[in-house]
Specification:
218 residues, alpha+beta, two-stranded antiparallel sheet, 54% helix, 12% strand, TPR-like_helical_dom_sf, DUF2225
Length: 218
């Protein structure tokens, strides 16, 4: 049985129609998770397919919201146009699925979400880049993007509106990214806030309690 299918997308920025390879959900098998809940996949790596990039203008976003994005205002449109034109000059995309190409696409989605002031998705884009570098064994690059993801999560938590249902995830990543980066006091502070507000109510709080205990023992 095939693990892949093709989906047609229409770019919300330039209107180009194109098809992209997608992964059937049933083909995704997780055999373990890292400290920050990064999945270790058994076979197909869905991170290679999650970002949709328009082949014409390079507009990039996660597949779940690619076509639903609304670009509001002439200033935002102008910034995006400039950003994507520069990206096309500097970045060569190949029609293959591997770590290098996925990193390029997540970098593009991070830049697009930044212009759209969607900091949570900027943070997730950077986190996924860090995970891809981890799979490649490139620790310095991984650390750099973990730091970028942490900065975006911090800004998102402090300055943006977010759904209450998102808060446990945000607090968890504020804790675990600080823990990975060696910021023990900051990690403990965020874990304690997560547990105070959501202990027993969220999977993130359950995992956060385990990480907090590991932090205290280490």
């Amino acid at each position: 049985m095939s693990k892949f299918w093709e989906k047609e997308f229409t770019c919300p920025f330039c209107g180009t129609k194109f098809k992209k390879k997608m992964v059937f959900f049933d083909s995704i098998k997780i055999k373990a998770r890292d400290i920050d809940l990064k999945p270790v996949f058994e076979d197909v790596n869905p991170m290679f397919y999650e970002v949709v990039t328009c082949p014409n203008c390079y507009f990039s976003a996660f597949d779940k919201d690619f076509e639903t994005i609304t670009i509001k205002g002439e200033e935002t449109e102008r910034k995006l146009k400039k950003l994507l034109e520069e990206a096309k000059k500097k970045v060569e995309l190949k029609n293959v699925e591997n770590h290098v190409e996925a990193i390029k696409r997540y970098a593009l989605s991070g830049m697009v979400y930044s212009v759209l002031n969607q900091r949570k998705k900027v943070a997730i884009s950077y986190l996924k880049i860090a995970w891809l570098f981890r799979e490649l064994g490139k620790s310095e690059e991984e650390k750099r993007y973990l730091e970028r993801a942490l900065k975006e999560f911090e800004s998102h938590y402090k300055y943006d509106y977010y759904e209450e249902s998102d808060e446990p995830m945000i607090l968890f990543y504020l804790g675990v990214l600080n823990q990975i980066l060696g910021n023990r006091k900051e990690a403990a502070r965020w874990y304690e806030l997560l547990l105070r507000k959501y202990d027993g109510k969220s999977l993130y709080a359950k995992v956060g309690r385990e990480r907090w205990q590991e932090l205290r023992r280490s």
